[in-house]
Design a protein that fits this description.
This is ATP-dependent protease subunit HslV. Its EC number is 3.4.25.2. It is found in: Cytoplasm. The chain has one domain: 4-Layer Sandwich (Glutamine Phosphoribosylpyrophosphate, subunit 1, domain 1). Helices cover 34% and strands 31% of the residues. It has a five-stranded antiparallel beta sheet with strand order 6-7-8-9-10. Helix 3 crosses helix 4. The longest helix has 17 residues. It starts with a strand and ends with a strand.
Length: 179
């Protein structure tokens, strides 16, 4: 049985606005299995955003665990991310999950992986998934040379550029923001 995979997720913190977006494509082998998967979620009544790349069921499990950590630590994004990463690395069940997360609040943008990493990206741009380097490159250029754009506009344009290049990324976008 082939795994469902491939996507592009990008988050940008710019001028006091956070935007997190993803395409909608899920690929099984060399076939598009679904074109409108929703890979970005708003948590804690819109105060936190989470996006995922990887196995969908695994990612939903991780987002649920992350939300539990957020509630346990009073909405402290960094603490919740660190505690999830510790559990993810040490828990026998969680260790087998194949996904990555980008989480964000109005002040923070983090990437969480199953190897115990909690990364605060340079340039306040985080990207994961098969088209991540295309989207990140586009976002870096826009942030450097088109700073009048909003974070949401940069996320949308970065995802469209990635979709034009990466065969595992499409133009069905979902973008959430916190201003």
């Amino acid at each position: 049985m082939q795994k469902i995979h491939a996507t592009t997720v990008i988050g940008i913190l710019h001028n006091g606005e956070i935007a997190l977006g993803a395409d909608g494509q899920a690929t099984m082998g060399n076939t598009i299995a679904k074109s409108n998967v929703r890979k970005v979620r708003s948590l804690m009544n819109g105060k936190v955003l989470a996006g995922f790349a990887g196995s969908t069921a695994d990612a939903f499990t991780l987002i649920e665990r992350f939300e539990e950590k957020l509630n346990a630590y009073g909405g402290n994004l960094k603490r919740a991310a660190i505690e999830l990463a510790k559990d993810w690395r040490t828990d026998r069940y969680l260790r087998k999950l194949e996904a990555m997360l980008i989480v964000a609040s109005k002040d923070d943008l983090l990437v969480i992986s199953g190897t115990g990493d909690v990364l605060e990206p340079d340039n306040q741009i985080a990207a994961i998934g098969s088209g991540s380097m295309y989207a990140q490159s586009a976002a870096l250029a826009m942030k450097k040379h088109a700073s009048q754009l909003t974070a949401e506009e940069m996320v949308r344009e970065s995802l469209h550029i990635a979709a034009d290049i990466c065969i595992y990324t499409n133009h069905n976008l979902v973008v959430e923001t916190i201003r």
